[in-house]
Specification:
Chain lengths: 419, 290
């Protein structure tokens, strides 16, 4: 063998051994999430920042769809032993996994983490079931009311038009539809499920009692709230039925400036600001009978099937994501609530608060924000609610009858799941 | 000698193993799961006997799905085959326009069903869709294509037919090209008109192709899922809730994999029964040679 060939071979073997060495040194954390477009970019920045200060940890983030998609994919991945190490889990859906011992109890990590003292009360509470902590919040939100100032102006409505009660919102939506309907503009987007929950709470009721787990779907105030929402589509015709069968269509139509008002998560602020610019205005949810909003969003949970060293690395990432710097970056880019009390003092957060009007509306709603039930039946309830809502909003079923039936079905399912 | 005996088995072994692993073993596992209660997450899978089947048969959702699936099949399959044989009879000639049209017709068959579903859900959107925009242009009122229970299924039939038609046309063209030309020459000499020739020559001799397409179209219709899940999710009011969509919902949304497996087994039995029925009723009437 020639000398050149010997040297080339030696160099190649050294490189190969070097890469193996490097691969062994990094702990890989497979992380499933639900963020795309601008939210995905913001997450990637946070991951890059984390990996910079933790060069021995490699976070492999994968966008898997929405909250329902994460649940569906975990169902397939867990028995196949292809589950990730960490996943974004919506705050009312993680109970199913926690109660089946799929998620690691994060209490020892969380209690030992100085970060815990810096989190808002709601952020400390939302990941707790039966005294144990299973997720740490990452993207927390409340629903807010967005409206398009240009559409309001064209419809003869001022920016100060009251939107504090159901009647106020109906009146504004009707005015928009009457004046601009011929241009293909509708008054309001059919509310998505998170917003529907907020509307029920604004009517001084709940779907499931967060403390006792009692099913409240057939309570008079809950039914009244659904009757109002359904009337927007089927009776007053100020909301497009497209947004009923596909919630994203309602949001997309608002972003395309075809809808005047939208009730949606504060997490949509970034995308809405990008689409509407200075025409975007944000208001708190209506206080029809009371001021009360649900806390939504999701947190990061660690799967118990992962090796201990990977779980440790995953928690380091979770803790970093909740740190003031990372959380402030996330807040400024997306509009999701800060979970760390010190985030608002960060320069990027200060700049966002100063230059992005409306981004603080959700923060101001925190005093009236409440966590929601996360019992095992809530996952089933939320999945079935879509079909019920569709039937009510499209005028195919009477609201009172449908909600009474829905309540009974949910109670039956709770018994069945408990058995 | 031994090599000669074992070689054929060794050559088919990889395929047989593949089929066993990805088809037969899952079927057996699904059958086993249909007698158990499991939510994917719990380590326990208690045996519950026929409870899953009893719950399914007692459920109105199951009978609704069966009705909707049967309706979809009965309406879409004859439509597809009729359109396909009609289009194939014009495209069977070898010419440049014919080849271009064949390619255009076949394009949807190789396009992602999810993409087709997303596009058509916007095309048929009530307030933002192209179809209603065209209707408004000619002074007609908007139609709630995907929100009206009486119309939503027809929209799915249209989309599914549009997607599958090209494949059926290509198969029919192959069948038509196998018919000897001298039969058409003889019919022409005897003064046969176009429709008469089609009824007496083309249709009987293309029966093997029709039978084949009938079998696979019915199987495909009973297994439609993607366009339902993307466009309507089984709504409105269960009007498009087909069997596989219900299976997905029970198994993957409601976490009842036992009941979902029971539905899969029932679907399998139903399809086998239908294939047997078709073979007995139609299979005997198929002409296999001119």
């Amino acid at each position: 063998m020639t000398r050149k060939l010997q040297l080339a071979l030696a160099a190649g073997v050294s490189c190969f051994l070097g890469t193996i060495g490097a691969a062994d040194a990094a702990t890989t954390v497979k992380f499933w999430h639900t963020f795309s477009k601008s939210q995905g970019e913001a997450l990637n920045k946070i991951i890059a920042g984390f990996e910079k200060v933790n060069p021995d940890i490699d976070v492999e983030a994968e966008f898997v769809g929405d909250y329902n998609d994460v649940v569906a994919k975990l169902q397939a991945a867990i028995p196949a032993r292809r589950a990730p190490d960490a996943a974004i889990l919506e705050v009312t859906r993680y109970g199913l996994f926690a109660n089946n011992n799929i998620l690691t109890d994060l209490t020892p990590y969380f209690d030992a983490d100085p970060l815990k003292a810096d989190l808002y009360d709601y952020a400390r509470e939302v990941g707790v079931i039966n005294g144990k902590n299973f997720i740490v919040p990452f993207n927390s939100s409340t629903p807010v009311v967005y409206f398009n100032k240009d559409i309001f102006k064209r419809a003869g409505l001022s920016d100060d038009t009251p939107l504090k009660t159901f009647a106020d919102i109906s009146a504004a939506a009707k005015t928009i539809s009457d004046k601009l309907g011929s241009e293909g503009v509708s008054g309001i987007a059919a509310p998505g499920q998170f917003a529907r929950w907020g509307v029920v709470m604004a009517n001084d009721s709940e779907l499931v009692d967060p403390s006792s787990g009692e099913i409240l779907l057939d309570k008079p105030n809950t039914i009244e709230a659904y009757q109002w929402m359904a009337s927007l589509v089927s009776k007053d015709k100020v909301a497009s039925p497209d947004g009923v069968t596909d919630e994203d269509k309602g949001r997309d139509a608002f972003l395309a400036k075809k809808v005047g008002i939208m009730m949606n998560s504060t997490g949509n602020y970034g995308g809405s600001k990008k689409a509407l610019g200075d025409d975007l205005a944000v208001r708190p949810m209506p206080c029809n009978k009371t001021c009360s909003v649900p806390i939504g969003g999701a947190g990061i949970g660690i799967l118990a099937s992962s090796p201990k060293d990977v779980q440790d690395a995953a928690y380091k990432f979770i803790s970093y994501a909740a740190s003031p710097e990372a959380n402030a970056t996330w807040f400024a880019a997306t509009g999701y609530l800060p979970i760390n009390k010190m985030s608002a003092d960060q320069p990027v957060a200060k700049e966002a608060l100063a230059t992005q009007p409306g981004i603080d509306v959700a923060i101001k709603s925190l005093p009236v924000a409440h966590g929601r039930a996360r019992t095992t039946v809530v996952t089933w309830m939320r999945s079935t609610e879509y079909k019920m809502w569709e039937a009510m909003a499209l005028g195919q079923r009477d609201v009172a009858e449908a909600m009474t039936d829905f309540a009974q079905q949910t109670r039956d399912e709770e018994k069945r799941a408990g058995n | 000698m031994m090599t000669r005996i074992f070689t054929p088995y060794l050559l088919v072994a990889p395929l047989m193993i593949f089929i066993a692993v990805f088809t037969y073993i899952p079927i057996v596992m699904s059958l086993d799961l249909s007698f158990r209660q499991w939510n994917f997450l719990s380590p326990d899978m208690p045996f519950v006997g026929l409870r899953n089947y009893e719950q399914l048969i007692a459920s109105s959702d199951f009978w609704n799905s069966l009705r909707v699936t049967a309706l979809f099949t009965v309406l879409s399959v004859p439509l597809r085959l009729a359109l396909a044989v009609f289009a194939a009879s014009y495209l069977v000639r070898e010419s440049a326009p014919s080849r271009i049209l064949r390619g255009a017709l076949f394009l949807p068959a190789v396009t992602s069903t999810v993409s087709i579903g997303v596009v058509f859900s916007w095309v048929f959107s009530t307030d933002y869709g192209m179809v209603n925009a065209l209707l408004a242009h000619v002074g007609l009122a908007k139609v709630q294509w995907l929100q009206d229970p009486h119309l939503a299924l027809w929209v799915l039939i249209f989309v599914n037919t549009w997607k599958q038609l090209g494949y059926d046309v290509v198969i029919y063209i192959a069948g038509l090209q196998a018919i000897p030309q001298d039969l058409y020459d003889a019919a022409s000499i005897d003064g046969g008109k176009r429709l008469h020739v089609f009824r007496r020559v083309t249709f009987p001799l293309v029966m093997p192709t029709t039978y084949f397409l009938l079998v696979i179209s019915v199987i495909e219709a009973f297994q439609v899922f993607t366009i339902v899940n993307v466009m309507t999710k089984g709504g409105p009011a269960g009007a498009t809730d087909m069997l596989v969509n219900l299976l997905f919902e029970i198994g993957f949304v409601l976490f009842d994999i036992g009941r979902g497996s029971a539905l899969a087994v029932l679907l399998f039995v139903l399809l086998v029964f239908l294939a047997f029925l078709k073979s007995r009723i139609i299979g005997r009437k198929v002409h296999y040679e001119a």
